[in-house]
Design brief:
This is Serine/threonine protein kinase. This protein has 372 residues and is of the alpha/beta class. It has 15 helices and nine strands. It starts with 24 loop residues before the first helix and ends with a helix.
Length: 372
């Protein structure tokens, strides 16, 4: 009986629990015996190359000179690996094919001027008793007659080679099934869905300051901006209402980050442009926010749309704009919102500045909430 399993070698090869090497895998991979022969030969070429640097395959055009895998110089000494996909057993009917393969390797070496130094027969199975007896006698006779070293890489030797550290990549590629990765629960940000903008909200937001600032900068379409703002508002309210400390802290950080991104880009644009509408500023800022989203918004239950919306909230809070005279636009806007009374503001469970659990007004959690 021949087991397909392998023990853990002392030299650091396959560890306990690795799947067994089953050479029938070539039939499954290639869809039958015909394809399995080629697949086995390809595996053998990689295996020999992994353990014998410089090994190469020889293509049949029209013949392969009796060579499947070669190590050496075709102008000098060579070692040849002969692939034979005899499966599941090497038996008497295969003996003539083995003789013919060795003869082809010898005669082509003589014909083309190189010396055959070593010939290795590679089979993915074991010989039955009569064939094993024949092999031992034939090998001894041929070695003495032609001065060529003859070896056998049967299933046992192939497995020994495949479990070596040098051949680990070959074994994994040909004989391991893809491992199913354990399911990982997605983060809130990965499952965050940007809500559609209700028609009534679309109409109400037309008079919002952030929309006026966009119009002042020459933006004809602002529907996407409204949706971003709307989703950011929903997210911010959820974070404050739930009062989860790390989410509240993340909201504060995200607000400060998008404001900083805008400020840096605004200052650069003012120095580089004479046009008071600062064309391209909005696009540049939003591109930066999208690029940095995974970094500054990792603790928030929102996606890129929500992060862009945080920038619109900063504008709506009179802390930024898209034209040089954005402060004037903000001053001229009619603010219909009532500012919260600091004396009656709700309380949140954490002090962001100190990272402690003292109660502080929600209005102090973020600059965004301070003016709302």
């Amino acid at each position: 009986m021949h087991s397909g399993g392998t023990g853990a070698p002392a030299d650091g090869g396959v560890v306990s629990g690795e799947p067994p090497i089953n050479f029938a895998a070539h039939q499954v991979r290639a869809g039958g015996m015909q394809g399995a022969r080629e697949d086995f030969e390809n595996m053998l070429s990689l295996l020999v190359r992994a353990t014998r640097p410089g090994a190469r395959m020889i293509a049949a055009n029209p013949g392969d000179w009796g060579i499947d895998v070669l190590v050496g110089d075709l102008g000098g000494l060579v070692a040849i690996w002969q692939s034979k996909y005899f499966f599941p057993l090497v038996k008497e009917s295969h003996q003539q094919e083995i003789r013919d393969s060795f003869k082809s390797a010898r005669t082509n070496a003589e014909k083309h001027g190189y010396k055959l130094n070593q010939w290795i027969l590679c089979v993915p199975s074991s010989m039955d008793p009569p064939t094993a007896s024949w092999w031992d006698s034939w090998k001894k006779r041929e070695q003495q007659k032609y001065k060529v070293q003859i070896e056998l890489w049967d299933e046992t030797e192939l497995r020994t080679q495949l479990i070596s550290p040098d051949a680990d990549h070959v074994r994994r590629h040909y004989y391991e099934s893809p491992r199913v990765q354990p399911s990982v629960r997605p983060t809130p940000a990965e499952t965050a869905v940007a809500q559609l903008l209700p028609p009534d909200e679309d109409e109400k937001l037309e008079s919002a300051l952030f929309v006026r600032q966009l119009r002042e900068a020459g933006h004809a379409e602002v529907t996407a901006a409204k949706r971003e703002f709307f989703n950011a508002e929903l997210m911010a309210r959820e974070v404050v209402d739930k009062g989860v400390p790390w989410e509240v802290a993340a909201l504060t950080t995200a607000d400060a980050t998008v404001h900083s991104v805008w400020e840096n880009r605004f200052n650069d644009a003012c120095q580089a442009q004479d046009d008071p509408k600062l064309p391209g500023l909005h696009t540049t800022v939003m591109t930066d926010i999208r690029t940095q989203h995974n970094t500054f918004a990792s603790g928030l239950p929102g996606g890129v749309v929500h992060s862009c919306g945080l920038m619109h909230r900063v504008v709506d809070d009179r802390r930024a704009g898209w034209v040089k005279h954005w402060r004037q636009v903000a001053d001229e806007a009619v603010d219909t919102k009532e500012l919260p009374d600091p004396q009656t503001a709700e309380v949140a469970p954490i002090d962001i500045a100190r990272g402690e659990t003292d109660e502080v007004p929600v209005a102090q959690l973020t600059a965004v909430e301070a003016d709302r």
